[in-house]
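call fold(seq) -> tokens
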Amino acid sequence: MFVKIALESIPPLTISAGRTVIGAAIISLIALKMGVKLPEKLSDWGHCTIIGLAGAVVPFFLMSWGLQYVQSSLAAICMSLLPLFTILLAHYLTQDEKFKMNKLVGIIFGIIGVSSLFYGTISGLDSSVNLYLALFALLLTSFFYALSGVLIRGLKNKNPLSTSSAMLISSSLITIPLALFFEEPWTISPTSSALYALFALGIFSTGIAALILFHLTHLAGATFVSHSTYMLPLVGIASGYIWLDEPLKITYVISVLFIFTGIFLAEKNTLKIPR
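ret:
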């Protein structure tokens, strides 16, 4: 929702650069205040840069660009596929989150959910190349978020403040030149609501979210953390309906039900209720 509001007067790359810089500043100041040092090893910086590309640079731009052509609620539904992407990636990139048959069934349900979403979207709007590309960009966003979560498991430096700061700093150094070169942000005149949305994105959805992501991924694993996306369609659809006057469609509900069923089937043997 905040990205959609920011897009009213701020272009996509500038949104990506702005939220990354704000997030990097917030987390780096917290690290400085707490006496936490940035990574000292070049290998840690290299790993954090790769995570930044997968978890910030690429998905921030793809989401911002895609939301120019579709509703924020659709983006939220696309993001709910993150656990299924994580299951696939974790199987090949980790040692302790392997693939099982129930996960395959879950993925099939997820594919049905996305197909329903695409059908409902395309049948209700004037089809265009940009619409198809936007939906594909949002699915790629979910994939890259999943990839970054799995890559975080491989970090040798387990301090979340240190590594999340390094990730956002390196991401800022990539996104700032791109925004300056392609969009000339000094020429835009952002509205106050767009600026408020950008600061909300930078502080909460980027900085604090990255810190929590790094911390919980080390504690519980990428697949467990990806379950947070259960909330995304519900919050995304509700906020789009309440604040952005986006319509509610039956195909959205069907898509969410299929995707949630897929996630449940994929994870039902691994989710245990503590006693």
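The chain has one domain: 2-267.
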